[in-house]
Amino acid sequence: MSELMGVINLDHELDLLNELTYFRCGAAVPFAGRYRLIDFVLSNMANAEMKDIAVFVRRKYRSLMDHLGEGRPWDLDRKRGGLFVLPPDWNDSSDTSHGDLQHMRNNLDFFKRGKAKYILHSGSQHLCKVDFCEAFNYHKETGADVTLIYTKVDQLEPEHDPCLRLEIGEDGFVSNIHHEKDHPNVYMEMFIMEKKFFLEQVRHCIAHGDSYFFRDAIQKNHHNMKIAAYEYKGYHAVINSVESYYKNSLELLCPKNYTSLFKERPVNTKIKYEAPTKYLDSASVNNSLVANGCVIGGSVENSILFRGVKVQKGAKITNSIIMQKCVIGENAVIENVILDKDVNLPPDRMLVGDVKRPFVIAKSSTL
Known about the structure:
By secondary structure, this protein is α/β, with parallel strands linked by helices. 22% of the residues lie in helices and 27% in strands. It comes from Paenibacillus zeisoli.
């Protein structure tokens, strides 16, 4: 869609996933056996045929850059436009901006050179399959200054607590933006705005010493703007803690949830060519998601195994997430555990966490 350009803003996404974000930003955390969290919003933008997409990063982005590359899996490796990974300019002595406004000020060239007339701004913590074309058409139909994308949550969970909520009038426009935890209209940190108006607000906020675009330009001034609300009704998960990551990951073992997230429009990711998973005669696998390249000789139940995991004979894995290239020794027992990449668990070891508080082992650990 030539009228719309994408911005994935990771500046406000703190390292809330503890051990999983020791060596990477939250957007680069692996998910569902072969993906990263950023793949979902990036694929939604690519499926809307956006030609220019910027990723604003500040810290721990080496892993993210390695994953994204030139953007080929999302058809964004272009001679003109495409995918841009943009950190702040640390060498600009005249820069007085703060927070995510610093990204916007330092990267004005991205907005000015892009031919699109509208901005779609998003984070990476809300996993969904929003049709951005449909949301954009809704924005134009309403004639709003900005359109916020939200979902109505039937069962509020702890991960929803930090999320902003929208009060929506009978006319479909936002009347208030607040933090009331018992309110079901969860703002998904996605908005659409005309680029010219967006840049005017950026300059105004910087001139007044503000730090965060959404808070200072939209939330504080919602009475002075015409703000529409677009309701998304599909699969939705918020990943902002280890507990929410663990819970929402294992819920994908339910075929209904898995189908809701991956059906219809594709979710693309970095391609890795590996052999199919090998199941030894001693293997037993039940209700699990197993990526390619694994060698299974033990028991795996209600778990997710990423690429290249080796489970040796006699090992037992239950209700756990085992990331890429981990090795589980003979007769080891793992239950309610998250192992990050390249963890080597010796034979006969036992790791047991709690269903509501999984035991997490950081990347490249040897126990």
